[in-house]
Amino acid sequence: MKKDKNTPPNPEPPEKLTGLKTGSPKKTAAGIPAVISSAQHVFGAMGLGRGLKALAHLNQKSGFDCPGCAWPDPDDDRSPMAEYCENGAKAIAEEATTKKLDASFFKKNSISYLASLSDYEIGKKGRLAQPMFLPQGADHYEEISWEDAFKKIADHLNTLNHPDEAIFYTSGRTSNEAAFLYQLFVREYGTNNMPDCSNMCHESSGVALTDTLGIGKGSVKLEDFYETDLILILGQNPGTNHPRMLSALEKAKKNGAYIISVNPLLETGLLNFNNPQHLKGVLGFSTSLTDIYLQVKINGDMALLQALTKLLLNREDQAPGSVLDHDFIEKKTEGIDSYLAHIRSLDISNLIAQCGIPLGELEKVADIIASKPKMIVCWAMGLTQHKNSVNTIKELVNMLLLKGSIGKPGAGTCPVRGHSNVQGDRTMGIYEKPPKSLLDNLEKEFHFSPPRKNGYDTVESIKAMHQGEAKVFFAMGGNFLSATPDTLYTAQALQNCALTVQVSTKLNRSHLIHGKEALILPCLGRTDKDIQNGELQFVSVENSMGIVHSSMGSLPPVSDQLLSEAAIVCGLAKATLPNSKVNWDRYLQHYDHIRDSIEACIPGFNNYNQQVRQPAGFYLPNCARDNSYDTPTGKAKFSISKSEYVSLEEKELLMMTIRSHDQFNTTIYGLNDRYRGIYHERRVILMNEKDLQSRKLKNKELVDLYNYHDGKERIAKKFIVLSYNIPEKCCATYFPEANVLVPVGSTADFSNTPTSKSVVIQVKKHKSQESEIN
User: Fold this and answer.
1) Would you tell me how many other CB atoms lie within 10 Å of the CB of residue 557?
2) Would you state the pLDDT for residue 771?
3) Rg over CA atoms, the chain
4) Hey, what CATH class is 204-415 in?
């Protein structure tokens, strides 16, 4: 069936309301409600027997790694039956569902119809069960064999004018083995166009940490949380995005740690925690986590940190040697004199105005930091998605260096990753700016010359496709359209391609907004048994703290037409590169052969096959953890940054995108945000009551949201205003519904990450009010 070219599918989530209900924000995270929610999702999706088997193997030493986040597994007291969180259980329910989508589903359901559904409705359709192909102009996918699918991709790739006309995207769920093969194929094909999800989340962390400490990863281990004096958490909502972190915070608290949280929203998971793995938690006894909560203005973090540093210097001046670690600073750092002169020159009243925290509260925090010699700083995308994100993270490093809180037990940097192997994928070489050492090792091991020119990152890839400079888009996992900024611009970019290919487990909106031709390649998930050459295989992943460990699926796949990601890469490489220097068939005999090649090319993987078979895996080398710094001088660097706050006009607000509690990245598990008291609706905007009054808006009134970056009008229609506890001139909306407002041309300095947490908008009443809003 041909598609009506005049009515292309809508790339945005539909502008339909689902029946908002509200309640008071919860005061405690997890507990029995989390247990009940987990059971409902898991057993509702796959039945009792399959559900129990999945949960029994989730995050166990002989089981499979949760795809829900990259928080490390504890080794000291890992639960034998329930080493997972509510959102981890939801992630498994989504992946291991017994619902499946075969050719008959796509024959009945057109792209036009599926695109009219919400992301939640699309995701609940089930697992993709066989390869599907969309001919040019068609409105229905049709079945295709794996052989023909590989041939079609190869034909497109091999008729391009240059390999740089192809884009190869990677989701952070991909295993080490698949990621290594993927980058190997792409580089033998001839391009470094390998954007990945890190470009949109923690790229700012990697750039800042590499420049100052010589390694783009965090420096702490999980046990450091149990030895620290102070944990500072900025721009992170662990109760929703990394719930197992709450157990570590609970234990840190029990051991005497002080916790300071910095966030524009009061997040339940940072306040109180009922641990459902312990009897006290089941009985409703909670642990109070945060000692001081600073509700900073959006993007006021750098000003906050610099204000605190000025106050720390005042205390050091009053009692020399009592606050700063002068021995560490002298032996291990450079640039201290210029940095201190810069901080002393700043006007603290300006910094206070920018961050929105009163001087009295800052004084209390400064007293705490001054008295604590061991300090961990944690952060997530609340810090990484602003124009000044790299410099803000460098300011965090400055504070740690002043305290000597790097390279010793109980202290260090802790960027908390989202996707379960986004850090491992980068380690494996998924990077548009590959280091020379990696390319040299590939050339030596495989006897081909990899490209040396940097490729496109995510934003550059979108622009290249939009301008017609890239014509084939291949995604190894993820939901590219919904994860990226400027939805309408990105949609047009994908539609400009001759071919788009999605390697996926579940249906998502990126399958519906496509190139002239499109392919869906269904792959095995983490929960699925992966059998190659008659033998059950395992893969490996790297968590947020640099531990590499195994993951082996335990459930029968829902279809016999699913291939592993590694098998898909090998099949694609064989079809595309008939004269390849790589023995792709050997990798499918056993994944140990892949790990042998990783060992030969990637530092830190000595005796990989032996080490990864250890029950808890092994740590990769980390220079900052070892108190040595891979910088040009061998020392950690102090950085000088000017606090730059977004200037707003009278009618403007600064918007940040956030996740609900029923969500992981673009995957929508449900329509409730239980901790914030928001139910059965996602098209909401959280605003300060004074900002409602100044705009003559009522609570639950319907509005449209506008962004005018670079003179272009972007509109997100039909959002419901909710009066909420958020600083004035700040507001929050759910991702990806508000992504249409995030300009593709607004990115962080140095990292080029979209500024999804610093979007300047205007709020205007919707022209026709909806009677169903209560």
Assistant:
1) 23
2) 44
3) 25
4) alpha beta
Do strands 618-619 and 714-723 pair parallel, antiparallel, or not at all (unpaired)?
unpaired
pLDDT at 772: 44
pLDDT in tens, 30-76: 666 766 776 677 677 777 777 777 667 766 777 777 777 778 777 65
Measured CA to CA, the distance from residue 23 to residue 42 in angstroms comes to 26
pLDDT tens profile 221-274? 999 999 999 999 999 998 888 888 888 999 999 999 999 999 999 998 888 877
CA distance 186 to 435: 15
Question: Please, which residues have CB within 8 angstroms of residue 159's CB and are 6 or more apart in sequence?
Answer: none
Which residue, chain included where needed, has tokens 């005796």? 607
DSSP 210-270: HHHHS-SS----TTHHHH-SEEEEES--HHHH-TTHHHHHHHHHHTT-EEEEE-SS--GGG
Whole-number pLDDT of residue 98: 87
The pTM assigned to this predicted structure is: 0.95
One-letter amino acid of 759: V
The reply to whether omega before 736 is within 30° of 0 (cis) is: yes
Residue 57 near residue 529 (C-beta atoms within 8 A) = no
Burial of 478 (0-12, 13-18, 19+ CB in 10 A): buried
- Phi, psi of 389, deg, nearest 5: -60, -45
Instruction: Report the CATH fold assignment for 652-765.
Output: Barwin-like endoglucanases (2.40.40)
Rounded alpha-carbon distances, angstroms, from residue 578 to 193, 567, 575, 581, 618: 21, 17, 6, 9, 37
The whole-number pLDDT of residue 31 equals 62
The confidence score (pLDDT) of residue 61 equals: 76
Q: Which two tokens stand for residue 224?
A: 């450091």
> 463 to each of 59, 468, 469, 703, 743, how far by Cα in Å?
39, 9, 8, 30, 12
- Looking at residue 59, its pLDDT comes to 66
Helix (H) or strand (E) holding 426: helix 422-427
pLDDT for the residue numbered 263: 97
- CB-based contact 65:91 (threshold 8 Å): no
What band does 738 get if pLDDT is binned at 50, 70 and 90? very high
Cα separation, 436 vs 24, in Å, equals 54
Short-list 183, 608, 649, CA closest to 425: 183
Burial of 65-91, coded b for 16+ CB within 10 Å and e otherwise, reads: bbbbbbbbbbeeeeeeeebbbbbbbbb
User: Residue 773's CB: how many other CB atoms inside 10 A?
Assistant: 14
Q: Give the list of residues 6+ apart from residue 710 with CB closer than 8 angstroms, or none.
A: 743, 745
Predicted confidence band of residue 160 (pLDDT cuts 50, 70, 90): very high
Q: Could you tell me where in the chain the CATH 2.40.40.20 domains are found?
A: 652-765
CATH number of 99-200+446-614: 3.40.50.740
- Average pLDDT of span 618-626: 96
Report yes or no: 170 and 430 within 8 Å, Cβ to Cβ. Answer: yes
CA proximity to 703, closest of 680, 678, 736, 731: 731
Q: Where in the chain is the domain with CATH 3.40.228.10?
A: 204-415
Torsion over CA: 273, 279, 282, 283 (sign): negative
Q: What is the rounded distance in angstroms from the CA atom of residue 330 to the CA atom of residue 308? A: 22
**80, 74 Cβ separation under 8 angstroms:** no
**Percent over 90 (pLDDT), the chain:** 79
Closest by CA position to 314, among listed 280, 259, 359? 359
Q: Where in the chain is the domain with CATH 3.40.50.740?
A: 99-200+446-614
User: CA-CA distance, 13 to 736, in Å (whole number)?
Assistant: 8
Average pLDDT rounded to a whole number, residues 288-298: 96
Residue with tokens 């810090």: 383
Rounded CA separation 53/51 (Å): 5
Averaged pLDDT for residues 489-513: 97
